[in-house]
Amino acid sequence: MKKLISLFLFLISSIGFSQTVPSKEILESWTDEYWQHGLSLLEEIVKIPNDAVYPEQIEANINWCEEQFSNRNWSSERLETGGIPILLAQKVNPNANKTILFYFHIDGQAVDRSKWNQPDPYQAVLKERDANGEWKTIEIERLENEYNPEWRIFARSTSDDKGPFAMFLTAWDALVEKNSEPDYSIKIILDFEEEQGSPRLPKAVLDYKDKLEADIMLIMDGPRHISNQPTLTYGARGIAEMTLTTYGPRLPQHSGHFGNYAPNPAFLLAQLLASMKDENGRVSIPGYYDGIEFTEKEKAILEAVPDDEQTIQTRLGIGRTDQVGNTYQESIQYPSLNIRGMESAWVGPEARTIVPATALAELDIRLVPESDPERLFSLIRSHIEKQRFQILDHDPSDEERMKYPKIVKLESKISYQAFRTSMESPAGEWLRSAMYRAFEEEPVQIRISGGSIPISPFVDALNIPAVTIPTVNSDNNQHSPNENIRLGNYKEGIQTIMSVLTEPLN
Amino acid sequence: MKKLISLFLFLISSIGFSQTVPSKEILESWTDEYWQHGLSLLEEIVKIPNDAVYPEQIEANINWCEEQFSNRNWSSERLETGGIPILLAQKVNPNANKTILFYFHIDGQAVDRSKWNQPDPYQAVLKERDANGEWKTIEIERLENEYNPEWRIFARSTSDDKGPFAMFLTAWDALVEKNSEPDYSIKIILDFEEEQGSPRLPKAVLDYKDKLEADIMLIMDGPRHISNQPTLTYGARGIAEMTLTTYGPRLPQHSGHFGNYAPNPAFLLAQLLASMKDENGRVSIPGYYDGIEFTEKEKAILEAVPDDEQTIQTRLGIGRTDQVGNTYQESIQYPSLNIRGMESAWVGPEARTIVPATALAELDIRLVPESDPERLFSLIRSHIEKQRFQILDHDPSDEERMKYPKIVKLESKISYQAFRTSMESPAGEWLRSAMYRAFEEEPVQIRISGGSIPISPFVDALNIPAVTIPTVNSDNNQHSPNENIRLGNYKEGIQTIMSVLTEPLN
């Protein structure tokens, strides 16, 4: 009897699901109905300049967002940070005991108007590609009756990251009208300083930990895999920085008088840097890659990513790659050690015949969950000491100059750590189910992205899984002039969010 | 009988010499008589701005010099070079069969007026040091009745190199009035583009080889040994330059997306440079130092130079020196390999999280007579090839990028070669005899100077010994604001030139 009841309840719930969970066809028809509404929202929000260097610009954006939430009967509150606030919006489902926390950012990169091929980077423009591959403006009114997935809307933040937020509002509006609201509660965090490195976010997450409580975090930012297939990204590398300075004579000296006598800081720096990596680009400091292993299953997932390595290498103009992993996807599973800048005295027409006083290298280290940055820094420090350098945290005094044969100043900073959610976690399975329903194909699954996003503070403070759902085209000129979003991606983005919002969680 | 006549002639000539060759005391008294005249000449010539970037400034200087020679019944002619000419002046002694060629340069370094502690860098100012070590202006008229060897005249080119030319004219004027003209003919070459690297000089020397013919060349430029004792310098290192560029991705790439994948050009450059020198600053390319050996006598001469190495190191702020030679003097007997500048992408506040597209090092190589620069370049090239770099003379094409795993662009230039006159040569002995007579002490003898001067074209084309007679104080701020000459050096410089001009040569 008990078994029968169980079966009955199971059937009821299954039937319930099949009735309320919209299929790919239904999601597509709803998207067709609402995408123009979505573009009006996008046009409206990109009109508001959003360079966080100017707080007054951000204030106008916050006001617009607050009004949107209020119009939709969401609550919202500003989480004060001592600077530009963070906006937390909520829609409680009284029947739900699960909550999803969505992350968007509303600020954008600065614009250099002279480099945009349109009068105003904050005024959306519709373009199509002509026979020569050039983007030509066409009347935006054509969207009232026409649609071409390859057309694009050009304006700052269309992709990064106002576009995804406008998609979300559109998906929400459609689902409310279709009576298909999610069976879970929603929180949304809007970051207004992401392009500035979210300097106040980590502390705010700790300060407002209780308000942010949720079960899963979904990051709505970043581009899809280069193949432009629906994508899920389960993590992002973290980032730490290091600056190394070596010392020669106190002031630059005539290279005739002191070449062969005063030690050259650029040679010292070259020797130190060269000792850190082998010819194949692998860090030669013992232990640097410790703890990184893939199961056969993980290897298969990495291999399933449809990267065309030959195309990537041709595009970059590189005849070989660093040998850290066997493939591009494998390479980003490891921490990196990258010289991002280097300088000593002058070059080119400014070059002078001197022994320089200093040489400096800026390094960045992309972190993975296995590589605690403190551990990496400690490995690097002991490696440097083994090269017989005295490590200082300041420019050497006269006394230190005379005392230590080789000196390096080491400055370091951990910007934020990596995060990575298990693909096998319930959150992962739940998202794959939603994505599969929306597109009837498996999404591209990225175990960890090479770049860094400030999400680890949430993951660490709230102790929840976090997954990124990128929607925009990868050639969107993010961070550059002529940022854009492909219409096909805009529509599929709405469809993606609808499928996530209608995926049963409770 | 023949022997007796020889003896008689020898005695006559010896007596003749002892009568006409002035002693230290006589030279000092003549100097005391003429140094104020000398300072008027100096004040007059430094008044004419002499930055060779402006040919009209140089024209005024040439005119002044031509007038000086003409007033003294010297012939002079402009040797045309296609640009700023060289001035050749001559005073033929009809009884002489030997000729000495003097070299001076009349152009000066550019001036940044804002950094000079006087209203006009071309208006000579007299200064004395106050109790705090600061230079304070005093009335130049005081020189009419007063003399203090520590006082200094401040103005551009007082030391480098109009000062020595004014000393020469002064010495000449005194000797003519004292009926003590040299027993040899004199040629003077005035270079008006030395601070520009004398770009037209090497060709002009070849073009006018016959006119320049002489037996000894004396270079009247540069500072005395730091001890400020009378100095003779028997040569100067030459100089060659090399620029190395390594390549990463065609354009800078996001270090998150491509750190561990796109080879980093700064690491490649560091590895290449590190392979060229050991930890002690010695070039590790086999053969680089070949052919350099000192006899015991030469070693003794190097050791006799009164360098205080501890003082030099403290002044430079270095706790150790490169181990190329055992002493400072030994170190400059070898060719150098110096990184004078290095650059890759951006550092400091400009630093971006990228894999740079290129990295570049500027090197200079100081040459010694044993190190033919073509041989050194060839050693360096084969060393680079052994590091498995493909050497190009241009930025790589797309095809070359894909073909060669490691590429370096190598650009090189030989500015001019070294020269070194044997200290044991007759010219060396003749000069030491003159210097000893002037000061009754042995001069400091520098086998070769670390820095470079454009003299090898003369030495090579005319096949004559060349020696530098530096006269000015080493702390003269040459090439910097507030250039000056110490009065004691100005007087001793006149005395030095008198002794050389009165030293019997025929």
Explain what this protein looks like in three dimensions.
The structure is a homodimer of 506-residue chains. Helix content of chain A is 35%, strand content 20%. Chain A has 506 residues and is of the alpha/beta class. Chain A has two domains: 21-236 and 418-501, Aminopeptidase, CATH 3.40.630; 238-292 and 334-416, Alpha-Beta Plaits (2-Layer Sandwich). In chain A, the strands form six sheets. Chain A has a six-stranded mixed beta sheet with strand order 1-2-7-3-8-20, with helices on one face. In chain A, strands 13-15-11-17-16 form a five-stranded mixed beta sheet. In chain A, strands 5-4-6-21 form a four-stranded antiparallel beta sheet. The relative contact order of chain A is 0.19. Chains A and B meet through strand 12, helix 7, helix 8, helix 10 and strand 13 of A and strand 12, helix 7, helix 8, helix 10 and strand 13 of B. Strand 13 (338-345) of chain A pairs antiparallel with strand 13 of chain B. Chains A, B: Residues 234-387 form the Peptidase M20 dimerisation domain. Chains A, B: It holds the Pfam family Peptidase_M20. Chains A, B: Keywords: Hydrolase, Metal-binding, Protease, Signal. Chains A, B: This is M20/M25/M40 family metallo-hydrolase.
Overview in brief:
By secondary structure, the first copy, chain A, is of the alpha/beta class.
